[in-house]
Every structure is written in C-alpha cells, then in structure tokens.
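Backbone shape codes
____________________
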Amino acid sequence: MRTLAGVPDQELAFAALEPEASDRFQLLRRQLGVSAFGLNLIVLEPRQRGRIHAHERQEEVYLVLEGVLTLGVEGEEHVLERGQLVRVAPPVRRQLVNRGPGRLVLLALGGEGEHHGRDGHAWQAWSEGGHGRPPADVPLPGDLPEHDVA
C-alpha cells in the first residue's frame, strides 16, 4: 500500500470541481470515498431544473457557487445568490431551478443523524506526538512570514 507522509491511501483523497463537465451531477462523495455524508456538485444550465424531491432521513445544505438558485420549497420560491446557503429538512419537498440567464453551480451536502462535534485534537507543531489537546487549548499559529507567501 502506497503512503504519503505515513498516511494510507484510503485516509487521504483529492478531487477537483468540474463545473465545465457535461453532467449535471459530479458525484464528489464517490470520488473522495466519503462515507459519512453526501457531497455533489450540481450544474444547471439556464431553464434547467431538478426533480421535486424529499428525503426520509437526509437533510441537505445547498451552497451557491455561481449563478442564482431558485429553490422551490413546497411550491414557494426562494432566491439564493452566490455565497448564500440554505438547509432543507428531510421531509420538506424541494426543487432546484435555474431561472437565470447564466449557469447555476452549487454544492449539495447531505447527511443524517446527529453530528458529533468537538471531537478534534490539535498540536502546536508537527514535531509534537501523542494524542494532542482540545483545539481550544492550542493557540492559533502566527501568520506566515512575508517571504513564505506565494
């Protein structure tokens, strides 16, 4: 098994957003091997729309990366622009619509169950070993020196 800096392949995966591809969906979850939540890039050309749908257990968050999303929620429309997000609860029917003159690109994240936050560990330096400490107990590092900025 090949490793990168001691990290097994299955623990580190990379992908690139491909909004220029001809597919409406880029299945990022599959590309990255994510198992805890859904993650897709959705591209809708002008006048395209998705299915009216809902979920049994999965809540979804949509982040608009480009264009304007018209989100139908139980027949009522909401408009979200670049940089805006919305969370939709599982049983709520929704539809993604591109009413704009340009392309709509959004990131869709979905998951179910309770989030278990605050499970992180932090270190002040790469040379530190052990289990780490709670992130709040480790001070934020200083800014990079001027000569280290690309």
Summary: The chain has one helix and ten strands. Residues 27 and 40 are 5 Å apart (CA to CA). The beta strands are 3-4, 7-8, 25-26, 38-44, 59-66, 68-73, 76-81, 85-88, 94-97, 104-111. Residues 28-32 form the longest helix (5 residues).
